[in-house]
Amino acid sequence: QVSVKIRFILIQNRAGKTxxxxxxxxxxxxxxxxxxxxxxxxxxxxxxxxxNFVEFRNFKIIYRRYAGLYFCICVDVTDNNLAYLEGxxxxxxxxxxxxxxxxxxxxxxxxxxxxxxxxxxxxAGEIRETxxxxxxxxxxxxxxxx
Amino acid sequence: xxxxxxxxxIDRMFDKNLQDLVRGIRNHKEDEAKYISxxxxxIKQELKQDNIAVKANAVCKLTYLQMLGYDVSWAAxxxxxxxxxxxxxxxxxxxxxxxxxxxxxxxxxxxxTNQIRKDLSSPNQYDTGVALTGLSCFVTPDLARDLANDxxxxxxxxxPYIRKKAVLIMYKVFLKYPESLRPAFPRLKEKLEDPDPxxxxxxxxxxxxxxxxxxxxxLSLAPLFFKLMTxxxxxWVLIKIIKLFGALTPLEPRLGKxxxxxxxxxxxxTSAMSLLYECVxxxxxxxxxxxxxxxxxxxxxxxxxxxxxxxxEDSDQNLKYLGLLAMSKILKTHPxxxxxxxxxxxxxxxxxxxxxxxxxxDLLYGMVSKKNxxxxxxxxxxxxxxxxxxxxxxxLQHTCNTKLxxxxxxxxxxxxxxxxxxxxxxxxxxxxxIASQMLDVAIRVKAIRAFAVAQMAMLLDNAHLLxxxxxxxxxxxxxxxxxxxxxxxxxxxxxxxxxxxxMLRPKVATLPGHIQAVYVQNAAKLFATVxxxxxxxxxxxxxxETSQLLVERLPLFVQSANLEVxxxxxxxxxxVKYIQKLQQKDVEVAEEVSAxxxxxxxxxxxxxxxxxxxxEGLDLDAWINEPPxxxxxxxxxxxxVFAKEETKHSRPRHTEVDEKELARRREARKQExxxxxxxxxxxxxxxxxxxxxxxxxHIPVVQIDLxxxxxxxxxxxxxxYLKLEEERxxxxxxxxxxxxxxxxxxxxxxxxxxxxxxxxxxxxxxAHHVDIVTxxxxxxxxxxDDDDKDPxxxxxxxxxxxxxxxxxxxxxxxxxxxxxxxxxxSMEFNVLDSLNSKLQRPExxxxxxxxxxxxxxxxxxxxxxxxIFSVQSxxxxxxxxxxxTFIVKSEDSSxxxxxxxxxxxxxxxxxxxxxxxxxxxxxxxxSGDLKSSSLRLEGVNMPFHHLLARICFHHxxxxxxxxxxxxxxxxxxxxxxxxxxLVKTADQTxxxxxxxxxxSLLGNVLDEIKQTFSQC
Lengths: 146, 1016
Hints:
The structure holds 2 protein chains of 2 kinds. By secondary structure, chain A is an alpha+beta fold. Chain A is built from 5 helices and 7 strands, in the order E-E-H-E-E-E-H-H-H-E-E-H. In chain A, strands 2-1-5-4-3 form a 5-stranded antiparallel beta sheet, sandwiched between helices. Chain A has a two-stranded antiparallel ribbon with strand order 6-7. In chain A, strand 3 (about 55) and strand 4 form a beta hairpin. The longest helix of chain A is centred in the middle third of the chain and has 18 residues, at about 80-100. By secondary structure, chain B is of the alpha+beta class. Chain B contains 43 helices and 15 strands. The longest helix of chain B is centred in the last third of the chain and has 30 residues, at about 720-750. Chain B is extended. Mean pLDDT of chain B is about 75; it is low at about 400-410, about 630-655, about 680-725 and about 730-805. At the A-B interface, strand 2, helix 1, helix 2, helix 4 and strand 7 of A face helix 2, helix 4, helix 6, helix 8 and helix 10 of B.
C-alpha cells in the first residue's frame, strides 16, 4: 500500500452511526464498514481517564470526544500524536464557527458541507491549512457561490 | 391539466431532498433497511429524469447513503453526469460523490479525464479547486499520467489557493505515476521558497514525505531545510522538518551534531507541546545514533529528561503517557539519567489510567539494577497490594515473577521471599505461575534449596492464613509447590515432624484434590526422613509417635472424594501400618522406606530431547497404526467460547460396562460397604428390594428415604407387608402434593432474602432442596421413585428443604412425620459435623450435642423444624450423617429409639436463580476467568423448552438468551461463583457446555444435571 499520512478521518456518535468518513487510502466498501465498526469498538470503551491515543491494527487512532461525537484520525504509529490532537481541535473549532455552535444534527443535515470543511483543512492525507480565519473565509466564499 | 400533473410530479420529486431522507431514516429506526430500499428505488427514478437538478439531488442523497454503508456503485455513470454539470453547485455534488465512491476499479473513471482537464483549466478558481480536491481521492495511474502536466502547470497558478492544492496533489501523482517525479521536482523545490507560507508548508509536506520514503536522495536539500527550520514559525512545518531530519541523521552524522543546538533552542523556547515533544524525540534519536561520536551531550540528555519530567508531572493524561514513552527511549542508552527520576515513575503506578501504569511499570523494569532492586521490589510489593485493574495487576506480578530477578544467588533468595510474599495477596490468578517458579528455582539451584525449603515449611505451617478464599483465587496452587519442595528436599528441613504435622491437618481436606494428593505423597517422604533421623539416634519412641500420627490422620484422606488422594492415602496408610508393626518388633525399616523415594530429580533441558539422535531406520512421520477415519469426530464442534467437548474415553464408567462387570462391581461394593463402619447397613428386606430393581443404576439416591428399621412394639409383621405397602404408596402420593404446597410457602418467605429477581422469575424458583439418603451412593447411581419401599418404616423423616441464606449459611427445614401408631416425643436431632459443614448449635452446647426438636408427634402427624448449617466450601456436594433420637410411647411401654439418616447437600442447592443480561453474560464469558467443562446427554426425548424449564426448576438457572435449539443459561452460587451453560439440542442429544470460575463446583453441578435427566 502507498503511504499517506492520514489514513482516514471518521466522525461517529456514541451509537456508532457514521457522521463523516473521509478515506485517504483505498479500501473496498466492506473493508470500510469493518474499519468503522472496529474504530467504534475501540474508542467508545475508553473514558476520560484514558489517553486520547489508541493503537489500531498497524496504525494508531488519535481521537477526541466532543459531547456525543467522536472525532477520530487514523495515522502512522510514528506520527506526532499531539499535533493531530491539535488538528482535531482546530477542525472542531472551525465547524463550531461555521455552523454557529455546532451540534450533531448540523453535521447530519449538512453532511456535504462538513466534507467541504474537511477538504479545506485536509488534503491528500496531509494537513493542508491550519489557519481558522483562512479556512472560514474560503468556506464563506464557496457558500456564496451556491 | 397535463401540465399540472407534470408540475406536481416534479414537486414531489423535489419534495424528498436530503433533509427529508435524513429525517425519514431517523423516523424509521425499526425498518431502516426497508425504508432505504424504497428510497433507493425513488432515487433510481429520479436519476432517469433529464433535469440535472433532480439528478444532483439524487446523487447527493446517494452520497449520504454511501456514507452509511450502502452500495451505490451502480450509479457511477450518473455521478459522472453530475460532475460535468456547468453549475458549480452541482459540479461540487458530483465531485464529492466521486471522491467518496470511486476507486481504481471503477471503470467510468476513464470517461472523466477530459472533464477533469477542462475543470482544472477553468477560469473559475473554485471549479479548479473542487476538481483538484476530488482528484486527490480517486486519482488512478492512468489519470496521473494524463493529468500530471496540467497539475504541474497549476503549481505556478496565480492564486496561492490553487498552488497549494496542486502541490499537495502532486504527491499523490508521484505515488501513482513515479515517472512524473523527475520533471516536476525542480518546480516543487522552488515552492519551498514560495512567497505564500501556505504553499511553502505544502511543499515541505510533500518533500518530507518523499524523503521519508527514500532519505538518501534528499540529503542535498538539508541546508535548505536547515534554513527553513531556523526561520519558520509554523509549528506544523517545524514538526515536519524535524521529523525529516530525524530520518536523515543516520545517513549523515555531521548533520546530527549541527542539529542539537537549534533543537535545544526550540525545546527551551516553544510553548507548543507537540513541537516540544517532536524535538525531544528527535534529540533522543540523534543522540542514540551518535552515542559514540559525541562525548559531551549529557547536557542535552539532562534537558530532555527535565522536559519529560514536566510532561509526566502534567495533569494531562496524554502528556504523561507520551512523557513516559519517550523516557523509555532514553532509558535504553542513558539509564542513569532516568534512574534519578525513580520517585516520579513510582508515582505513576498510582495513575487512574491503566496504560500509564503499564508504561511506568515497563520503565521500572528497565531501571532495576542490583543496587536498587530491593527498594523497587519493596515499592512494587506495596503497589501490588492496592493495585486495581486485572491486566495491570497481572502484569505487575508478571514483572515481579519473571523479569526482575535472574542472576545471582542473592537475588534468587530474595526471589523466593518475594514469591512467598506474593502468595499473601488475595485475588491473584498467578497461583500456577508462582508455583511453577518456586519449583523451577528450587530444583535448579542447589545452593538455595535449604533456604527455599525453610520458606516453604513456613508457608505450609501458615497455610491457614491463605485459606480464606483461596479456593476461588487459585493461590492455593502455591501449596502444591510448597508441599512438593518440602517432601522432595526434606533433608533440609529443620523440624520435619512439625512440617509433617502441618501437612496432615484436617483443614488440608478442603484443598483441591490434586494438591491434597501431593500433600499425601510428600507426607510419606517426610515420614521416611523422620524415620531415618530417629533410627540413627535410636529414639524408637519418637519414630513410633510419628507412625501413630500418620495412622490417625491418613483415614481423613482415605475418605476423600478425589480418586488420586484416596488411592495414595490408602496405599500409604497400609504401608505405615505395616511399618508400625515392624517398629513394635524393633526392626530397622528406615533404609527400606527411604528407598521408596530414592534418587534425585534432575532438571531436563527443554532442548534435551532434540539432541537425541534419531536411530537409523526409524521414520517418525510414518503411522504406526492407520489413523482412524475422521468422519465421526469432526462434525460437531461446540461454540468457541466453550471448551472442547470432553471425549468419552475420559469417563469410561458412564459408558459401555457390560452386565457382568456391573454385577461384579455391585458385589464388590456391597462387600466393602459391609466392612466399612461408616456405611449404614441396609436391612435385609431393603436389600431384597434392591435385588428386584432393574440394575445397579437403580440403587437409590432418594428424595425421600428411611433408615434402619425400628423395632417398635406393635409394629406390623412382614406378612402384612403387601397391604401396608399399598396404603403407604397412596399416602405418599398425598404427601407429594403436600410437599408442593410446602414449597410454595417456602418461596414466599424467601422473597425477602433475595429480592433481585422480578415476580415472574420467582415462579420457577424452587425451594432449595436437600435430600436425606440412607446409603452412600455410587456416583453413577440413579435416583428412582420405587426405592423407598421399605415396609418396616414407621417414622418417616420426609423431605428436607434447605434455604440458602447470605454468605454460607444454609437453613435446612426438615419435615418429620410419624407413620407409626405410637406417640413420639423428646426428639433430638443431631448431625455429625464434617470439616466443611457444621450444624449451628446454641451457645454453650458442645460440638456433639443434639438439638431438641421443639414438638411432639402423635401418630400420623407431621411437622416441620428448621436447622441452620454453616458451610465453608460449596464446591462439592456434602453428605452428613445424622441421628434422630426419640422416645416411643405406647399404651403399656415407652422405649428410647434412634433413626439414622443422611443429609445430602447437593451443589445445586447452593445455586441461586439470578437473572443475567446477555451483554453482562457475554462479558463474563470473554473475561477468560472461567474454566470450562461439558456434558452430553443421549436420548433425551422432551421438547427443548421443557428441558430448559427442568434445568431452571431443578438447578436454579435462568435463561439468558434462547435461539432456536440453543440457549444460554446462568446461575450464581451463594458465594458468588458464576455458572454459565450453553445448552444445545439435536436429535435427542443434548450437549451442555459449561463455564464456571470454580471447576469442581462446575463438575458437580453438571453431574447433578445429568442425574436429573437420567431420571426421565
